[in-house]
Amino acid sequence: xxxxxxxxxxxxxxxxxxxxxxxxxxxxxxxxxxxxxxxxxxxxxxxxxxxxxxxxxxxxxxxxxxxxxxxxxxxxxxxxxxxxxxxxxxxxxxxxxxxxxxxxxxxxxxxxxxxxxxxxxxxxxxxxxxxxxxxxxxxxxxxxxxxxxxxxxxxxxxxxxxxxxxxxxxxxxxxxxxxxxxxxxxxxxxxxxxxxxxxxxxxxxxxxxxxxxxxxxxxxxxxxxxxxxxxxxxxxxxxxxxxxxxxxxxxxxxxxxxxxxxxxxxxxxxxxxxxxxxxxxxxxxxxxxxxxxxxxxxxxxxxxxxxxxxxxxxxxxxxxxxxxxxxxxxxxxxxxxxxxxxxxxxxxxxxxxxxxxxxxxxxxxxxxxxxxxxxxxxxxxxxxxxxxxxxxxxxxxxxxxxxxxxxxxxxxxxxxxxxxxxxxxxxxxxxxxxxxxxxxxxxxxxxxxxxxxxxxxxxxxxxxxxxxxxxxxxxxxxxxxxxxxxxxxxxxxxxxxxxxxxxxxxxxxxxxxxxxxxxxxxxxxxxxxxxxxxxxxxxxxxxxxxxxxxxxxxxxxxxxxxxxxxxxxxxxxxxxxxxxxxxxxxxxxxxxxxxxxxxxxxxxxxxxxxxxxxxxxxxxxxxxxxxxxxxxxxxxxxxxxxxxxxxxxxxxxxxxxxxxxxxxxxxxxxxxxxxxxxxxxxxxxxxxxxxxxxxxxxxxxxxxxxxxxxxxxxxxxxxxxxxxxxxxxxxxxxxxxxxxxxxxxxxxxxxxxxxxxxxxxxxxxxxxxxxxxxxxxxxxxxxxxxxxxxxxxxxxxxxxxxxxxxxxxxxxxxxxxxxxxxxxxxxxxxxxxxxxxxxxxxxxxxxxxxxxxxxxxxxxxxxxxxxxxxxxxxxxxxxxxxxxxxxxxxxxxxxxxxxxxxxxxxxxxxxxxxxxxxxxxxxxxxxxxxxxxxxxxxxxxxxxxxxxxxxxxx
Length: 954
Description:
Elements: E1 6-8, E2 15-24, E3 27-34, E4 39-44, E5 49-50, H1 54-59, H2 66-79, H3 81-84, H4 99-109, E6 115-118, H5 126-139, E7 146-150, H6 155-166, E8 171-172, H7 175-185, E9 197-201, H8 202-205, H9 216-234, E10 240-244, H10 259-270, E11 273-277, H11 286-296, H12 309-312, E12 316-317, E13 336-343, H13 351-374, H14 377-392, H15 394-410, H16 423-428, H17 431-441, H18 448-470, H19 475-490, E14 498-502, H20 505-517, E15 522-525, H21 531-543, E16 547-551, E17 565-568, H22 575-582, E18 594-601, H23 605-624, H24 626-639, H25 642-651, H26 657-681, H27 692-715, E19 721-722, E20 730-733, E21 744-749, E22 762-763, H28 769-778, E23 784-789, E24 798-809, E25 815-825, H29 832-837, E26 847-849, H30 855-907, H31 912-937, E27 940-953
Parallel strand pairs: 6-11, 6-12, 7-9, 7-10, 8-9, 10-11, 13-18, 14-16, 14-17, 15-16, 17-18, 21-22, 23-27
Antiparallel strand pairs: 1-2, 1-5, 2-3, 3-4, 19-20, 20-21, 23-26, 24-25, 24-27
Helix pairs in contact: 2-27, 2-28, 4-5, 13-14, 13-18, 14-15, 14-17, 15-18, 15-20, 23-24, 23-25, 23-26, 24-26, 30-31
GO molecular function: ATP binding; helicase activity; hydrolase activity
Domain Helicase ATP-binding: 107-299
Protein name: SNF2 family N-terminal domain-containing protein
């Protein structure tokens, strides 16, 4: 053992390196640094195990089987991707890697600071881009703790998408779970450290306002939240923070920070990687846009003059939905064809339905005024839901009112109030979830007189609903069956798959029962199903059922692009939720034009409101395109509460046609300003083509992993079997590491895109634990070998093949690895052509065991190989250093410009001592930033020989 030797001490320490030696009292002690635990410890010589060294093994005449050498080389080759290739994460997960996503990944990772605004149009996979960045940094060992902050209604969607596509488990932290964790672990600890991967909602997390106007108990509760939730999260030592719907991080017009913006600002200041996701970064307010960009780069956007396209482009990724292409250069998205289906209820058999609708409108109108007088917001929200449910189905309103009737009778003499209700959070939920929340919290009027009256009204409404159902002539259901038949005939496909969306589970049950009675095979998805149950229902729909009936809450995160027909049995009042439905099928992977049928009940208040508002929205679609319309909806829904607009029109005559026209015009102008400002300030990415190297990685890595696993199986008497009816899906009996892995793998895939519709399969990628374990095992053998190769290109040549691992780091945020192949002929001549050919050992076939010559015969070859490896390594090192220096120069330039602007601002301060103090602090900050840049400047190379083989070409 000597200085620099690699050794093992105990498994928990990993591999160490000897850095000093001491002899005392007839014993030899070594000081060893263990990178895994970042520790230097002293160990006696006899307690250390020297790791195999190719040169020593070669000198000792050791030789392994060519297959073992081959496996070890493939393991090293695969492993180098962890550090080198920006696109490697795109082939590790169940997604269809696309050029614009990989370009976005490269854009962020090639920046000096991994901070970016991801502003693609709706439907282009901003979630996937953010996840790929996280996974890439995780693979490289530079990120572990990640926090995803979303609107309340999107937390489950993010959790399911991360599990389905990336096999990542995220913990959703909300108020109830925070309280439970505090009970479990006590008040002293920081609950945010209990999990490394967390999703939370922005309005749960943001700080609460403290004032003397609130009660002492409320003040105490808010203060505790600010300390235990907000401040603890800021101190959570996150590696990555991702904000979805980031346009919500706004300031007031006065410049005062909102609680949301303060949260974004404080996390931005302490987090290395920050990703802001929004389809509408510029919501028509330049100051708000600048403040959001300052979260990403305060140096670049300190001054409003820097709010120009050239600067914005430096921190922003933005792609057009209809412009993006696949790997073959073909446009990804098809056309969307939307049809409005107006349903009349003019027959005598429809009288009961119309009577029921009128009864509910009367009930809602009367009790809205009462609830408004009491400021009973839960009751108001419940009445809004009833108005939506009656337009959904008679069955749904009957069941809902029956539940209400029982509860009213049960608690006739009790009046409850909700102590706290965040209506903004509630508005994010689907109709199904809103109803469940309100019903579970029991909304009642205080006045007993109105409680008794409500019981009588509901009783009459239930009777109307029963008459409606007994008529057996449901106009909406009849139209549903007509559209299903029309679609099958139009496509000339009796087995055509169709999705039916509704807001409420009871309507879903009604549709399912009706269709099944007619012989249709159905599947269903709703919010009450677990993720596993949703996948089962999705697979049932794909493989055997013709019609899927889904609720809004159920459709989140599930890809249904193998179906192109959608019927919206009832329409949500908020058009954003309709866009989210359509996004289930109008998405990446859809091969057909998407056909949408929207049901609208004629002669209803909703039809009247929708007609006026939709006309204005339709102008936006026609003028700017369907995709930009989808982009601005998220911003419009904040300025114009669609639910409230519809409801106001239902319960009173305040919203006359002239007023609705005015609101529609305001919506149009707002959308127009947003779109035009964004098009000017945020240029779309023009580059769609990947580098050849990137394409090669995407195509080759899955093949390499598959070849590697097949060779490993062959060496371990195992067999990889492909299903005869399912191409590219495999199964095998596992005889390896059974204590860690299951005995039988029933569904294994190697192609990431295959996972789009096979969520339950194991994707064997570089990120899969089984593949990692095989790599680890394969690296333990095959250091030295001798073999013969039948290859006419190099027939008659023989010599020493060596592989050298070059690692470059700056001990901070830079890490690069490359495997260098060197072939030295027996004549001591460096053969560059053979060396290059061996860069990928899998290009060679027909390895036969050869004879290893005496070490004395090839010692000089080894020395020549080392010299050539050092030359190759130096060229690579200098090239990498040049690129790194350019990045540092750019960062330094931004830094200098930022501090120059800050100094100019401070110089205008009139009070001399304040000015002097601020200038002093500014100088200290500048020196600190420069010092940190300088520390990152130096790159350190390390070169190790990892394999040696004597090769003869026949």
